[in-house]
Write a structure and sequence with these properties.
mainly alpha; 11 helices; 68% helix; globular
Length: 191
């Protein structure tokens, strides 16, 4: 119950229900929930080296007062841990064996890279590095994988044992097995 209360957004995003959102909207909902889950389960960095470099460069360049430099530093701090890394952490947080069951070698990084890129294209209008955001089958697969990562991470966080025991339980759930076997045609490779 504690996990359900503290991770309500993530739980709501994976709760089975009829969804009225478009495929793109469902992906955005799932990725945002995964990002929130990561922030809730993983501590933020205690230092922000790049943000401090930016603050120092602005101080040396002059032209901005201390409040303006702090504002820029705080904005940069927010992006110090990129979305791609925020997606990988919950996927890796389920344990090595379960992560290997879900993703083949290297696929977790490819999934995180592609999902983060597609979310940024859809949310912010950034120029795409690939055309996955126009492929409905790929969007559905990315959405379902993101939801599955959330479900598995919530299960582990709730105290279920990771590894072979959890894989054995999951094997009895046809929907989870189906998602695990889905493979988007070809995800762009992580760079």
């Amino acid at each position: 119950m504690e996990v359900a209360r503290s991770c309500a957004v993530a739980l709501d995003a994976v709760e089975p229900r009829l969804r009225e959102n478009s495929v793109q909207g469902q992906l955005l909902e799932a990725v945002n929930a995964a990002e929130i889950l990561q922030r809730q389960l993983h501590p933020e960095p205690s230092t922000f080296p790049f943000a401090e470099q930016v603050r120092q460069a602005l101080a040396n360049a002059g032209g901005l007062n201390s409040a303006q430099r702090r504002r820029v530093r705080d904005a940069v701090k927010f992006t110090e841990v990129p979305l791609e890394q925020r997606l990988r952490q919950p996927a890796e947080g389920v344990g090595a064996e379960l992560s290997r069951w879900l993703f083949r070698e290297g696929e977790a990084a490819d999934w995180a890279f592609c999902t983060a890129t597609v979310r940024n294209v859809l949310s912010h209008g950034f120029a795409p590095r690939h055309t996955v955001h126009t492929n409905p089958a790929a969007l559905i697969a990315l959405t379902e994988y993101t939801r599955l990562v959330i479900v598995l991470r919530l299960m582990v966080e709730s105290g279920l044992p990771s590894g072979a025991d959890l894989i054995a339980r999951i094997q009895t759930d046809g929907q989870l097995r189906h998602v695990q076997r889905q493979r988007p045609e070809k995800l762009p490779q992580h760079r």
